[in-house]
Design a protein that fits this description.
single chain, about 300 residues, Glutamine Phosphoribosylpyrophosphate, subunit 1, domain 1, 9 helices, about 25% strand, globular, binds glycine
Amino acid sequence: MSRSSSVIVVHGGAFDIPREERDAHRDGCHEAMEAGWTVLAAGGSALDAVEGALRLMEDSGIFGAGRGSSLNEDGTVELDAGIMDGTDLAVGSVAAVQGVPHPVTLARRVLESEFAVVVGHGAARFAERTGVERCDSAELISDRERRRWEERRSQPDPDWAVTMFGARGGGDTVGAVALDFRGNVAAATSTGGAPFKPSGRVGDSPLIGAGLYADNATGAVSTTGHGERIIPVVLAKTAADMMSALHPQAAVERALATLGRVDGLGGLIAVDRHGRVGVAWNTPTMAFALRSSDEASGRVERSGPA
Ligand code: GLY
């Protein structure tokens, strides 16, 4: 079925984005949104649009994903990503994978396979088998993150959870949701996780229901923030379910309020099956960009940090 509207929303994380980094976060989100929009405008699928948008963000070095990822306690980049197609509820996730610059594309290969989740060394091998680009792990370590890791290491008792998810925390995980002209929705989320995390630690981002969800019956959601708090409230699925009765803006706000029960910080983006959008966060700032084309409302564009 052909629709008259199409939408993409991307986020670059919800946290206290330093003032001097806000322009880069806004521009990075905008560029990723435009990349996803180009796919949609050409009649491409929501799934291709969210993957394309996140590939750009994983390459940018601005966000805590792909080449901008923070380092774990061993000084290594370990990546998590998930992707979901609302058409048939197909899912693919990878976690704690090293040496893969585009974990969102690896997650897509998992989605296309008979599996749902592949982790660790097995995920890197899965990349090799399915022709997904690999690189030396060291290539994913940026100068910025190496410096931050050195600083944290020299502190007397570096505590990754406090550093990353302290009073004003959150994180610069990236995510995207889209609705295509055929009426299909998709969601994807990608992250390097929390700085100084223990090796093997996995947050919410690749977990279907927590870090992302997509169902043509309701809509698509991607989340960001403190994984250990987002997981117990199953934030993405909570918001998606609420969209069956509420406007997406009301749904994301009500879902975000559930984080209060676990003292959680974060944010989320959503698009429903009608093309309506929701964006909410409980951190000082959130980076996002959205574009929507609708016969009734015309082109809508909005972006933050806000
Ligand atoms: N939301 C990212 C993480 O907790 O790893």
